[in-house]
Structure formats: structure tokens, C-alpha cells
Amino acid sequence: MSHLLYWPGRIFFYALGNTSAVCLTEELPPEHRADVLLLGCGDPRHILYTVYADASTSSEPRKLDITCCDCEAAVLARNTLLFTLLADDGAEDRLLSIWNVFYHMMLDEGSLSLLIQQCRKLVPLAESLDSWRQGPYAHIVIMCNSDTLSEIGRFWKIWLGTSNFDAEQAKRFKENFQDGIINVQRGHEADLITTSMRSAGPLAPVTRLAVSEQFKRFWMTGVTDDGSPDVKPANNPNPTFAFSLSGDKFAVHYGTDPILGFHLAEALASSGLECSTKSPSVIHKVVRTARQQFGTWCKAVIRRVQNISVSSASLVVRMYAGEALAFCQALHSVNRPSVAHTPIFIAPWKRSVVQLDDALYSPSAPAPAPTSFNVIETSNLLDHVGLQSLLTVTIPLLCGSSSSTLYTEALLLAGDSPAQSTLNHICGDLSTISLLLGVVPSSYISRFTTRFNFDNMMHDITKSSSRQCHQRLAWKHINFGHHSDGLHEGELTFTPHQLARELFDIYLRMFSDEDLRKQMAILSLDKPQLTGKIQPPGIIHYTRRSFALLLAHIRTRVRCDWNKVINILEALILQDRTLLTGSNFYQETVCQLHLAGFSISWFGPAQIRELRSQEDPPIFRSWSMVPEVVTVVLVVPRHAIAKVQSDLSNAGTPYLQCGIEVDGKHGAFACISASFGKIEISGEGENKVAVVVEDREGINGTSPLIVSFPVLSTIVIRTSGATVGLAVRPNSQTGTLVKKLGLEMCLFKALLTDERYAHVLTRSPTTSKGMINSEYPLVPPKLDTVSRGNPIHVEMDISNRRIRSLTARIDIVDPTGQASLASGCGVTAEQLSPNGAKLQVDQYHHIIPFPLPVDVTNAKLRVARKSKYVEVVAPMTLALDVKGESNVTGNFRTTFDCGVPTLWNMHRVNLDRCPSFKLSKSRTAFNWLESHVALMFSQREHTLRAQSTFPGSIPDTFMNLKDSLYALFISATRLEGPTDAEFALWNPEEKRFYAMILVTDIRLDIGSHTVVADSWIIPGSNDIQDKLKREVIPALFIKTDAHESEAWRHLLPLLIERCRTWKHKPTCEYLVHNSIPLYPGSGSDPKKVPWCSCGMGVGTKVLRERYGSASAKYATRAAISPLFLVSYMEKVGMKIDGPVGPLAMTGCAVCGKGGVPLSACSRCKKVKYCSRDCQVKDWKKHKANCVST
């Protein structure tokens, strides 16, 4: 296995999700179909919300094909149950009972009856894949293989079986279930449970006490309470919560809360409530909102799935029960016809091999299931398997389109900053790792996000070292936009020594838990410093197989002398003294590198034959041929486990590893597979085969434990008299085991030649004699021999941890270019975009796509006129430290994907699915909103503002842009003075505005926990403005300098595109000019409109009613959001102080002149002036009260 094997003593059942629902298609253009992979899918909240919130440009909804993977079949059984209930006639009338079945741990009689009736329908359908395909639900739910259907059907049978309990069985079932609830309840009696706060986003502080009280009530009663008087008694245990991988033992996770998956801000946005109220009315509001959202989302699903055939279905949900990493490798192997089946185990503690349904996953399948995806959602799997393991198996499944997105979530450790925790997960410099992997967090490039993160805000403001932070990242291909220009990503090259040093640094970080010096240094810290620094044993993720698979993936991207790289790397690992226990894993490291397809200089068939002739090992005497790698199998008697089983189960997540010992030398092996059962041996020599008959009772059964692991055959040849053993890996929670097991923590050991317990085979045991080896990893293909584009050479800095420069080599093959080069013409390089350059040689030019942002202005040129090539050596500009810049246009990236505009880091929103909230006359109703919008600003920006001597004196365009957005939101929501809904972007140098913004509504972008201004953008050209004079006059002029004007030119098309529900025309100006925005570099020129005209006048009924036909004719809808900082790059600034004066005044603050364009103070945005002269006159007085935003 590529992940450490932990003892399955306590497995929690995550029946419900612990984060609020997100729209899975928020990065996709509405024209594209969505092939979605959900790993660790949990409950179906994301699917339900996506169906509701997804935008379309036609009357037909987007095609959604969603593949769900979860190792807990009980989760999939619940999800399938829900979808089948929604597919039945009359589902809308039963939504309250469906809510109860899915979210309540205790059921009323009617809801229980609905559950049992549905199980009676489903159990016969689960007899076989054929019976399922012929059933009434095959058009919405598809099973990826028969094993999944069998496991899901097993739970339906169990649930159905509870209806046949006699009185004594029913009593015992109910008592055991309620005892489990009570045990959890007791553990929370004195606690303040605030996990659900994050589901309220900007309203989180208001819900602090209410959500805690709701959580306790849920665990006390087993139901949710919305204050309805017509509540039926709920006295029956819900079977869907009672059974899981833990059998009939109550295993529901102690943090389970039905409201966590919903968007609680909608309940309280206009309430005007003070922070931290636990009034029953608030609790009821929150629960009622969650139920209403569930009902609304379900109705959207019902409209899609009822009375629809398989061929016309616009929503398909595929189910797979098994471990996520294994499933990804299985999907990757589908495209390899030479592989008869997928050589991967279904899950830890299983000996079955993944076999996907040929009717869906064979090359000849009539309607093949997706094996590559434009959306991959990984939940918080990286907390369990490690980021590198996760990215290694998911990146090959990510479609190559520009909009394809891979999402990761993490619960960052308490005590660390978000930046440090992110780096710990990355295992290196973010730029370097991104380049090696081929994907990068989109927010790292753009330096902003349109999603609000409440956890990180609280961490930075409260300086709390105990609060854990939830972080969600969107990863995209680093070659964003290259394909659409007819260009190809350049192949990467390194010097072998630098690449080996970088890989060794990654190796040290991946296995830092083996660095005992580091652990001892942490233990020497004071208690306050120690908080959050001790690495819990549950977050040790990697084995040497993980590292080898990572290298195999990197090899698909980097052209280098890999034999030399591996030889250097192997020497570094062998000589390393940093990982004090790392030398024990040296043999396993070499073994896994070999299995991943890397050559080791001292190891091969010839060396094995020579060594065998010298040693004559008894184990191999009957073998005609000894392969490079063999499998060692150890049968551990049950009594060896039984003596410490309770200690193992109470020790958190203890990891198991094997070892081979001879003459005092010890080799450790963590890449092990295990299962309980009986082993059946047949054959002799290299034909010896082991089949495992698994014990379904697992750790609760009586069968021995069978473990296996791959080793180099040279180890077995050399180790005459060796022993093989199974041990517990020591950590901070396994200390009690030392008394029973000794310092070696060995559970059992036997002589390698003792065939009662030990076997050496050519392949790993499985549950079937015909299965091929399922232990060894798939080997990703090597880099294509054909060049894919301009070679990009990567030069590391002196520390070898960061990239110093990227060098693009351009071979001049064009005759005109060659002639110009040979004649001595000048050679120049011009920056086109953050990662694009144009090489110019007289009339010849060549576009260079760099994989990451570089500084072409300061690039060095190496010109080889005789050899006819030019090298552009460009310094890397991408780093975690953020500095103020004048030109930020590169932060707003767009490209074309199949002729459709695609956004880099601005999620799409369906404005009509974003709830609006009342603009209350009470200012206290929106205290939360001012604070929320102010959290756009970082500590760095606040410090800069405090140091400024005059408004607008800081050359930080992004900060000025945030100031303008802040002014827009504060003014449009009546936080100060009368409402301003009409804004003009105005460059004083031009003496006219270049765009008008009409805000018709402020809405909640609930999926991203923020707000959005439902706006309309009108060009500022004279002819249009002349037609608008009688209808609308801007109430607030937002002054922008030249740099901010250019930033708005790049931003406005994105704000329009992100909420688009119309199609771009064939004559779209974007396509004609091959540019988004139009006329880049034209700044505030009102004659050169930066957005296309395709959406102008579309859906403008609200403007026609409010203003008139001229406004409606020229307006294009836009979704304006706050631009928040990136938590792993900057810290949140403190809350902005209250306003000092009216924001929207009727006249100039100095002379009182009205009826003319007024500009707000660019620093505080609170006071308006008619001219610069008036502002200068007022500065001495205003300076004392000017509060920076």
C-alpha cells in the first residue's frame, strides 16, 4: 500500500458531511459538460447543491456525470437510498420524511416505514448488476462494479432486517444504539461546539452559541428541531446510522451535525441579531433554513431524474465502494489495454483486487464511463493519505482543458500558521513542487480569492494557537491557456545533480517524522510553544512507495538523465543521517524505486544470478528463476494479536510495519498489505501461490492475520537464518504497548524458512488463484520521446530549494528568422503576460509560454547566431511573499477553452440562485457586512495605510482596487447615509468616467461564504452616456488612477463572464481580437470597451423597470465580489474602525456644491469632494479623522 497500514480498532462512521455544500461546476464554463470525480465523497450534499446552483446557457441543463468513491459502503448505501427516494413518484410530498430518514438518528413511525418500504424495493434489485440495470433507478445511479453493488445491497438487507426483529432483539438494538448516542453526548456536555460556525460564513459570530446549542440538542434527542408544533414522536433508532464498517457497533462520528452541510448565513443575513445569541428562535431559524435548502435542492434533482430514460438523463451518479487511491490507479489503468484487470487491492485490510465493470470500463464499452475528469473533488482525504500521495494519483485523471480543476481540503494543525501548515503538506517550495507536478493552486498565481475562509480569519485575528483551520485549494494545470494558442507546454529539464538534491529534500520532508532530532527539539519547547507542534501519529502519511510513485509521476514531466539522478539520490539517502531511522527503510526504498521502473546501478538479474550462485539460499533451491522482487508473507497467529488487541484499539491509530532481521541488522518495511483469514498454499518454487479466504468478522473474528510485503530478492538470498516479524510503529500514543511487547514493539516473528508462518512467493496473496500480482504499483509512462514544445531548463538557487530562473531555448527554424539572426539583427524579448514572452529578431517573432510567472524585463538573452538558437533566461517571480505592485493585470487571467472564455481564479456564480437579503433600515442589521468586506485587507495593507502621508500616495494597485470595492459595498448597503446604487469608475486625468455600475441587489454567495453585488455594467462612451442622461446619473464617482483603471479593464470582463447565462456569439469581439479583455493597455479610454457585446441588453427587465429602456439596452450583468487575501500568503488585517462621516453626501464636503461628479477620499472612502482643490483644502482637518479602509 502507498499509505501506512493502521490498526482498524476505531473506525468512525461519517454518515453526514462536516463542511457546507459547494457547487462542483463553479469553475466550468456553462457550455461544458461536467465529468466529476468525488473521492471520499461522503453524503451527497455537493451533488444536490450543484444540481440546484449550476448555470446553463439554454433551456436544457448541463450534463452531470458524477463518480462517487468512498471506502465506507454504508455511506454509498445511504446516498443511493436518497436518490432512489427522489426518483419515485410523489417524492416532493415526502420531502419532510426523506429529511428525517437521512438526517435524524431517531425516527418517527412514518419515516421508519418509508425507509423499510424503500429497502424492500431495493434489496431484490441488488442481487446482480443485471437486475440493477433492469430496475427503475438505473438511469440515475450506476454501479461501477458488482462488488460495490453487493456491499451496498448488504446494508440494505441489514436495514430491512431490523424490521423483523422480535421484541427482545428490538429492545437490545435500541438500547445499544441509545447508549452510543449517550456516550457521545456526555463527552460534549461542558463543551462549546462551534464547528458549524464555518457553515454560516460571514454570519459565523452571530451563530456561535446557537449552533453549539443546536448540536447538543441533536445529540440529546436524535432529531433536528425547527420549532414546528406538529412534531411526531421519534422513538425508533435509524438503521442507516447503526451499521457501518464497524459492524453493528455504534460508530457515528462525535462531530456529526445535520446542519453542517448547509448554508446558515441565509437564515440570519437581515436579522440584526447581536453576536453569540442562543435564542431558541435563532436555533429554529437555522434548522428551518437547512431543511428548506435541502427541500429546494432535492426538488431540482427530482426535476432532473423523474420520467427520464437512461439515454436522456442529464444527471448520472456512479457508485464505487473502495479506497480512493486504489480506485484512481484502477481508473488510470483502464486506458491500458494490455492490463487484463487492475492490479490493486480494493482497500486496506482487503485481499480482493479491484475489477471494474467491463460494460462500463472496457475499451469496447458501448457507453463508457468517464476515466478522466474536469472536476476532481477530494474532500479532506489529504488529512488521511497525504497531499503528495493524493496528487500523484489524481493529476493523471485530470482532463487537459483549461477549466479542469482539482480540489483539496485540509484541516490545518492548531499551533501552525496557515502558511506553515500549507508548506508542510506541500513538502517543499510551492513553486518548485507545482512545476514538478504540473498543477498549481490558482490563488497562488492570482494572489487573491473570491472565497471567504472564516477559520483562517479567526486564526489571524484572535492569534489562537488552539483553533484548527479548514483550507480548500483549487489546483489547475500550470499550462493554463497554452493549448488554445496552438502552443504546447515546453518539456522541463534539470541538471541531474540539482534534480536529485531537490528530490532528496522532498524525501526528507515526506519522512520528517523519522527525524528524531527534530522531534526532540519540539519536545524541548515551552508548553505554550509546544501547542500544536507535536505531530499526531494519525498524520504520518507516506511510505517509500508513495515517494517512488511521486518520482514516477515527475519523470513523466521532466527530461533528464534519470539513471544518474537515481544514482545520486540513492547515495544521498544511503549517506543520510538526518532521518535516524531512515536507514532501516533503505532496502524498501530501493525496492519501491525498482518497482516504479527506475534502474539501480548495483541491482539487476545478472547480480541476482551471481549472488544466488555464491549463497545457495535454501528458500530458492527449488526455483528455476528468481525475479528481482519477491513477496514475503507472514501468518500471525490470532493469540499473538489477542493479547494486545484492546491496547491496540485504545492507542489512537497505531501503525503496523514488518521487518526482516539477521545478524543484528534490521530492515523495516511499511508498504504492507494485511487481512484476516486463512491462507491456502499450492504449487512449488516460483509457481507457489497463496489464496486467502477472508474472515468477514475481521478484527472481531478468530482467524489469523496475514500480512505481505515486497522485498528485493537479494535480501532473501543473503539472509540465511533471518527472521520476519510484524511490529507496531512507536509513537506518542503507543507507550502502553511497550510493557507487553518490549522496546521492539514486536507482535510476532518467525524464521523466514518456517513454512508454518512464513512464505516467499512471486506474487502477493489474493482472494483468487487467477489474480495477478496486486501488490506492486502501476508504473506511469515515461516522458514522450517527441519534444512537446520549447525546452524549459530549470535552474535552482544556491540552496537548491527554490527556482532561480527558467530558461527557454528557441531553435530558429524559420528561414527569415535564421537570416535575420545570421545578419546580426538585434534580439529582444518582451513580456506579454506573467508567464508569456515574445522573442523578436527583426521581422521574425516567436511566442514563448513559460510554465510559471517570470520577469522577462530582466531576462538575459543568449544568442547563438551560428547554431541558430536563442535562450531566454528569465528570473522566477512567483513566491509566497506578497508585495505591493502598480501593474496587477496579470492577476486576472483568462483564456479560451474550445472557443469559450475560461477564468483562472474567479469562481462562477448563478446569481439567480444566490439569495438576496433585505436592506434593513437598521444599521445594526449589517454590522457583519462591513466587517466581512473589510477582511479583504491584509495586515501588510493596513500597515502601509498607516504609514501613508496622503490619500492615494501608495503605489499598490491591488489595495486601491480593494478600496474601491469596499466603497461600493458599503455605499450600496446603506451602511452610511442614503443608498448609492449608481457608481461611475472615473479617471480624473480623463475628466470623464469610463464605466457605470448599477447595483440592483446585494446577494449571498452562500457556497463561497461571501456576498456578491448583482450589478450591471454600462460603457462610458459619450454616445451611450448621452442617451442615459435622462434615466440615470451616477451617485458616487470612484476615482481610479491609471494603474487601477487598467486593472478594472481586466477585471470587469471577468465579473461579467462569471455569471454568464447567455452564449457568446460567433462574432464575439473576444474571438475576433483573440483577447480578454479587449484593447489591453487602453486603461480608462471609454471608447475602447473591454468587454464583449454578446450579453448587452440580456435579461435587463429589472433595469427597464427601475431606470428605462436606454439603461436596459446597454447594460451587461456582472457579479462583483470582495477580493480576499490568500491565507497561506498573507495574514488577515484587523477590523476597520467605524466610519467617521457620511459616506454618500449630497454635495462637496468643503464647498457644498451638488449636482456635479463627486469623488470619495481614496483612503477612507467616507468623504466626497467636487475637485482636488477642495480635497487639499480639507486635508488638514480631515487627516485627523481619515480612517484607512
From TrEMBL:
GO molecular function: DNA-binding transcription factor activity, RNA polymerase II-specific; zinc ion binding
Keywords from the named record: Metal-binding, Zinc, Zinc-finger
InterPro entries: DUF4470, TF_DEAF-1, Znf_MYND
Source organism superkingdom: Eukaryota
Pfam families recorded: DUF4470, zf-MYND
One GO CC annotation: nucleus
Every MYND-type domain range: 1148-1186
Keyword set includes Zinc-finger: yes
UniProt keyword annotation of Zinc-finger present: yes
Protein's name in the database: MYND-type domain-containing protein
Organism: Pisolithus tinctorius Marx 270
